[in-house]
Amino acid sequence: MDIKYEIRRSKKRKKLTINIERDRRIVVLAPENTSDEKIRQVIDSKKQWIHEKLGHPQKFAAKPHAPGKEIINGESLYYLGHQYQVELIESTNDELVFDNKFLFPMQEKEKNLVLLKKWYVRCAKEKIIPRARKFAKDLGVEAESIKIVDNKYRWGSCTTKNNINISWRLMQAPMFVIDYIIIHELAHLIEANHTPEFWNIVKAQLPKMEKAKLWLKENGQRVQEEL
User: Fold this and answer.
1) Which of 42, 113, 147, 220 could form a disulfide with 216 if both were Cys (CB 3.0 to 4.6 A apart)?
2) What is the CATH code of the structural domain delimited by 76-226?
3) pTM for this model (two decimals)
4) Considering the chain, what is the average pLDDT of its residues?
């Protein structure tokens, strides 16, 4: 069976790597002068590894429920790793209010998921962007931009133009997990590949790196699928 893949070349990249995204896309990250033929040869040599990754029982486990979350009284939602109860209230305000509870306007029932996403995005911009700038300063790097994005299958990314993108869905995770993703992407401004040097950079900034990776392994699918 032929393997379909996307190629992303970069002047800064020193070696070829293959990424399997959570939506099962295969992305080849390659140095700028790598030929299509060379990439095809590498893909052919890694066919068994690719098929094993695509069949990973945890990364691509079947969804335990239909996507989406119903906003009803007594339901709970995650914010910074903790669960808070949902309450529908009579209100003249058409916005979600957080006060140790998620207070949704009863008259906006059909729009409550939209209000929730909007609230998460606002919180992400307020909390993640300043935090990312601080960590960038600590690392001695400078990103072209730091943006909050609506990405369901990637927590973050560092583009070839040095732009850092972070998913707003991370606002459901504990702060040490958010810090891990921020530092992980910023570290790519120093080392493009996941080399031992790269992981040393991340761990030096975040001693809880392994704990954060474990949290994402155990909870990541739930966080990504619910909204």
Assistant:
1) 220
2) 3.30.2010.10
3) 0.70
4) 84
